[in-house]
Amino acid sequence: MNVFQILVAVIVAGILIYLASGFFQPSGQDAFEALKNGIDYAERHDGAAKEAQIAYKADFALNAANFDLPSRSVRLECSSASICGKQKIDVQPRFLVVKEQSLLRTFFRCKNKGLINDCVVYFGEMPAQLGLQSPALAGPSGGMETVTFSATNTGSLDAVDSTYDIGIYSKSEVDGVAKLDLKNEIRGLVKKMVPKEVQNVRHQFDSPREGKYLLRITLDGEDAGRAVWEKDFEIASSVSSGCAALEKGRTTMDGGICRTQYTCTGCESGAECSVRWIEKGLKESDISETYPIGVYVQKPAADGQCG
Q1: Can you give the pTM of this predicted structure?
Q2: For the chain, how far is it from start to end, CA to CA, in angstroms?
Q3: For residue 185, how far is the Cα from the chain centroid?
Q4: Cα separation of 155 and 163, whole Å?
Q5: Could you tell me if residue 28 is left (phi over 0), alpha (psi between -120 and 50 degrees) or otherwise beta?
Q6: What is the Cα–Cα distance from 273 to 290, expressed in whole angstroms?
């Protein structure tokens, strides 16, 4: 190869290197669009974390307010001490500055909080993420239904301050519109869970009266997302033949509330006793407590007296 050919080869190699470095240089606009797309996706998948690998150029800066909407607030968090602070990036709740060109694991999660969606972008490791495993509803047995499930943490950080809520809703239709009415609710705390930990939960509740129902289990964490499972179920009429409403019992007053007992005999559950008294004219909405031996109706006292 002569001198001219060597010179040409050097020039071509230089051009290729220049083009390659320009091609692979992360674009600030590309990172901005990737962040926006991740937040939009997370908003459509309430409580679940979404991961993306995003290339950030050095000196890339971001104000989270750029992603805010009237129905959405966005904040930023660091989830890895090895890349934050004085390392690769500086993360504040509303601002991000990238100090050196980096390809970072970036996570997005939004939670609906009623009036607004609270969205968080995490940089580094996957945040704590609650999950539901093996949810099941069994029964009735002895007038009771049994719900079981396993709470999991699929993230890389500890899940703390987590709760669960088990709701039993009756299903009906009013003027062609589906309606859900909460009939029973069970709440509990989930102990701190390290990554990959599983905690088993089991609860029983009185079988409701015949009808169509929805069981909804909700796991919620302060900074661990949300997981929801729902199941439709139906209760057929199965009141024991020996179950009967007996008589109106005594009325007592406590704290300005009159509490009247309506007794039952031969019932296996409070739900059965409730059915018998509803058949005799009590309004279901007036019944505040149910037991196999009786139900209770509570009403405010009138002029300090129970009628």
Answers
A1: 0.71
A2: 114
A3: 15
A4: 17
A5: alpha
A6: 7
The last residue of one of the domains, among 124, 159, 177, is 124
Q: Specify the number of domains making up the chain.
A: 3
Looking up tokens 């051009």 gives 15
Sequence-ordered list of residues with C-beta below 8 angstroms from that of 19, at least 6 positions apart, any chain:
none
Within its chain, how far is the Cα of 258 from the centroid?
Answer: 38
Q: HSE-up of 161 (CA within 13 Å, CB side)?
A: 4
Q: What is the pLDDT along the chain (307 residues), one digit of tens a residue?
A: 554 444 445 444 443 433 333 333 444 689 999 999 999 999 999 999 999 999 999 999 999 999 999 999 999 999 998 888 667 899 999 999 999 999 999 999 999 999 999 999 999 999 999 999 999 998 767 668 899 999 999 999 999 999 999 999 999 888 889 999 999 999 999 999 999 999 999 999 887 877 899 999 999 998 999 999 999 998 876 788 899 999 999 999 888 899 999 999 999 888 889 989 998 999 888 898 999 999 999 988 888 888 7
In the structure encoding, which two tokens stand for residue 13, read together?
């190699």
**What is the sign of the dihedral through the CA atoms of 92, 95, 98 and 103?**
positive
Domain presence at residue 11: no
Q: Which of 235, 253, 286 is the C-terminal boundary of a domain?
A: 235
Range of the domain at 283: 244-300
The enclosing domain of 171 has a CATH number of 2.60.40.10
Residue 17 amino acid letter: I
From residue 226, alpha-carbon distances to 41, 155, 176 in Å are 15, 12, 31
